[in-house]
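Field reference: sequence -> structure
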Amino acid sequence: MFYFSNTRASREALVIPFLLFLIVAIACINIVLFYVDYTQLNGLCIFSELIISSLPLVKPRFSKAERESLVLSEDTNSILVGLLLGDLYGRKQKKGKNTHLCFAQGLVHEAYLLHLYNIFEVYCPSVPKIITPVPDKRTGKTYSTIRFQTRALPCFNSLYELFYIEGIKTVPSNIFDLLTPLGLAYFLCDDGTFCKINSSIVLCTECFSLREVQLLQEVLENKFKIKCALNARGNGFRVRIPKKGLPVVQALLKDIMPPMMKYKIGL
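Structure field:
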């Protein structure tokens, strides 16, 4: 028969193994916390690449009824309007009737891309992926991107039809009504740059025609009371918000701009 001795010596003999176990447990917890990088953004938990890669690569398909039942909230629609003015692009397959939305950013903006994924995760078939292409022939450098895309869904069709004419992205004629402060915030996240030298904001809009850029200028000045000017850039034009317009932009967007992108409005 075995019995446990309750002597002082036996109790002291257990202390060292227990302390070793405690040290190992704490070390394991620290290792896990080292790899799990999470930040609370607008109530959403942003996961690091390690955690993203541990999620299921392919999510269950939606039924036809589920696809057709999906709708965009007012805020989600506003964000998409701003993103479509920026880097986001939509596409339809030749024989498809619904729209994919494709999100991509340089790896330097990984936190921002994961922020977007948290917003649009419900519409996506898989998690973001890091793409590392062959080195650029001119510089010899490798420019990795992180990207994800949504499923082809009917809830995106109306925006696609507004922003694309024969497959070419345009500024909708009713952009005055479409663009909200929230949309402007995400437009700046995608296509805005902040110049520290003269405290100005530049919107990289040279992919649009002069008339389309003028239309955006009118919205900024007449709807949001942001004074701005147009500057030629190659064969296109950019919108520049000078230093005197910066306080208006900051007051309008400081509480709704994604935290990791506030530097684009000088904050």
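Note: Residues 68 and 178 are 23 Å apart (CA to CA).
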